[in-house]
Amino acid sequence: MRNSLTLVVALVATTILWGQSSSATAETYLQLGNRNYIEGNYTEAVKYYRLAAQQGDAHAQYNLGYCYANGNGVTQDYTEAVKYYRLAAQQGDADAQYNLGVCCAKGYGVTQDYTEAVKYFRLAAQQGHASAQYNLGNWYYNGTGVTQDYTEA
Length: 153
Description:
The protein is mainly α. The chain has helices spanning 2-17, 26-38, 42-54, 58-70, 78-90, 94-106, 114-125, 130-142.
């Protein structure tokens, strides 16, 4: 009986690790995606990020957006990048908020909109995102997307 139970546990663990179970968690998929990304297997990473993102994992949504923005494992597509950054940003992911701000500022995947860029830079900056804080300060200093305000800068 003990050997049978061990075999069942091993089979369930193997199934989950290889992503062949519908009950695999977003965290498992995210970890598999990260492992593949680090190893340079971007196409496999995207597959696992997508599975985790479909379960609502903000980190996976951000990572999937990053892959689309940089053409890692997928054809570069800023519209798709913005779609996934926006999903993660809505869940409070500071990196996604910052990157979404960059996309709005440069017009990558969306119509260029400095007001929207400031909105996302501010959200990320409030969470301590250093690049967002720098950009927001710089924009206040120069009056980009906001009324120029040296004190706020």
